[in-house]
Amino acid sequence: MKRIKLFLAAIIVAAGFVSCSDNNNDDDIIIEVNPLEGYNMLTKLTANTHSIEIYSEQDQFTIGYNELFFRIKDDAADTYISNAEVSWMPVMHMTEMQHSCPKSSVGVTDDTSVYSGYVVFQMPGNDTEYWEMTFDYSIDGTSYSLTEKIDVLAPVNDKRRVTVFTGSDDVRYVLAMMPLDPQVAVNDFSAMLFKMESMMSFPNVADYAIMIDPRMPSMGNHSSPNNVDLSYDATSQMYNGKLSLTMTGYWKINLKVMDDDDTLLKGEDVTDENEASSLFFEIEF
Ligand SMILES: [Cu+2]
């Protein structure tokens, strides 16, 4: 057992992830492996003698869907807090108003010190307008709140992966593409749809339908075979379908959103006269 521990410790020292305990017995070295190794720490928010470290597979908060993981550290004790009750609220402070965006509730992962959820930012910050994240959490019956500014940026490749629109029913919607590693193949393709109920509330919309028509504008606007429109899956709360990409390059994924009565809410067919829908996502690979 001792050999295994020391071997592990050697690996961890080499990887730079050792956390020293104030223990003076070598047999009892506490090894703290960062459960989020391989993820990027996007920011560290500090207040109330706690730090909240936010991680993602991405390397920045980006407009569109962001899967986030975070840990709450007790700075004095140098330990991470498990099973806290946590809620979060992103708010954008604009010149004329404030608004939030679609988000999940906060869940805990298999490692009870790692919390997770998603946030769908629908616009980036700029010089005068910015996003703030608030975490409300309670530890052993004591409530805390932490609010700090975060930087939300446009995607590096500047391709559209979230769109805000007003439907023919006069409701405002946010439609977000799920992250995708596009291949020349028929790809699993998913999106999430939210209703803007108020400036601060964006519930998930169920049982609508999302039609897709991928095109390559630079090549005669050709399409691809074997696409499958997106239909709602209650378990994942996502719209799932298949996106066929027959070659690498720039694709515009033209969209139409229908409600549960099959009424068209937004988007147009692509025809010889109409080369694109007003509602679309973009992919370039
Ligand atoms: Cu805004």
Describe the structure.
The chain is mainly beta and 285 residues long. It has 3 domains: 2-31; 40-153, Immunoglobulin-like; 162-284, Immunoglobulin-like (Sandwich). The protein has one helix at 2-15; strands spanning 40-47, 50-56, 61-62, 64-74, 79-80, 85-93, 98-99, 107-108, 115-121, 130-139, 142-150, 152-153, 162-166, 172-177, 185-195, 209-215, 228-233, 238-245, 250-258, 264-266, 280-284. Strand 17 and strand 18 form a beta hairpin. Bound molecules: copper (II) ion (CU). Copper (II) ion binds at residues 92, 94, 99, 123.
What's this entry about, in short?
Residues 1-20 form the signal peptide. The protein is mainly β and 285 residues long. The chain has one helix at 2-15, and strands spanning 40-47, 50-56, 61-62, 64-74, 79-80, 85-93, 98-99, 107-108, 115-121, 130-139, 142-150, 152-153, 162-166, 172-177, 185-195, 209-215, 228-233, 238-245, 250-258, 264-266, 280-284.
